[in-house]
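Trying the structure run again after the queue cleared.
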Amino acid sequence: MSKISNAITMMELLQSGRKYSIKELSKTLEVSERMVRVYKEELEKAGIYIDTIMGPYGGYVLNQTVRVPVRKFKMTDSKLLDKYIKEESDPQTKEKLIMLQDKIKGVYIGSIQESEELNLKDETLKKYNMLTRAIKERRKVKILYYSYGKGENERVIDPAEMFLFQDGWYVAAFCERKKDIRHFELKRIINYELLEEKYM
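Done. Tokens:
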């Protein structure tokens, strides 16, 4: 598999919440232990932080919820089977190939219908990963936030915790403008900037 594909597979494994040793990941992904460390570094560059547990029983743990990119079929994947279906002489094998082709078509059509919704989720994911990084590194974040009735306003926040409420992601943060803890809905954050300045 490619470097990106292996990194995604590693993230999918860690999504279970289970601790994996570098040796286990190396064996599962069929790569060297050095490459497992490279995948960890690449994921962290993307804002997906993997905790390292030291010691003989240590390993990697993913302590944040990450929406794993969905690997989908394309229509070309379905058409690729046409040749093999035509050439297959065994009726049972031919039927299985046709069923597989139908499944691929179904997944493809479903992904097209969901594309608009997934784009919104992808934008929320970027905000989630940035805020998770801010929490881990204890860094301030400047946001342009839309409040109902008040419109857009700029805030500097000290993010403390992410939580899911009624199918929407929120960040609990100390608002420097209000001098109090506030809850900000991610979908109402219009612009955001991770600042170098840290909070206590």
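Residues 91-137 form the longest helix (47 residues). Worth checking whether this holds up in the mutant runs.
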